Structure prediction request, 231 residues.
Amino acid sequence: MDTKTLYKISYGLYVVASKKDKKFNGQIANTVFQTTATPPVIAISINKDNLTHDYLVSSKLLTVSILSQNTPMDFIGHFGFKTGKNFDKFKDIKYKTAKNGIPVLTDHTIGYLEAEIMNSIDAFTHTVFLAKITEAEMFNNEEPLTYSYYHNVIKGKSPKNAPTYLKEEIKEERSAQNMKKYKCSVCGYEYDPAKGDPEHNVKPGTAFEALPEKWVCPVCGAEKSKFQSIN
Prediction:
């Protein structure tokens, strides 16, 4: 079976947030879609191991922040490759509180949905939550960030807990300058010397070995030591 066929299914990229008691948490989700128009209902697939899953089960409330195509990689990494079990994801992040008490991102967001969970479906490693939309608002008319754009244009990867995660073989690749590429063992981001790292002002043509020791992965924040050469 050619699992890469699944890449042809269209997705968006969103931040799904919820709360438990007085704590907030949110994560990147790429499986959010409308199921009915009257009443307006959406379906969201969340991994059972994720902290957001626990919050959704507890509060039955959520928001979906619709990300802009211009969302920087480190912002995606903040919500997609780090766990709220270790730190407050909403600390130092700009957001507003929706009517249901759940945070909505105001940076890199074109609009949001506010919803109440009606039902859920067990889907092996994930739960599919069915939620009725209670509020919605547009912030601007920017293009939404799709999974296709994330995967094919900015070369982003899926976290292991994402519904769309597929194991990929490491292939032998060389940059235009014949320098080795390096791959993050945490999130799968590939450092290509031919492109450099615009997020950290690293110019194209900079070899991985020449990066400062304090340099970190622009997606998940992993240290340089977590990278492996692609042979």
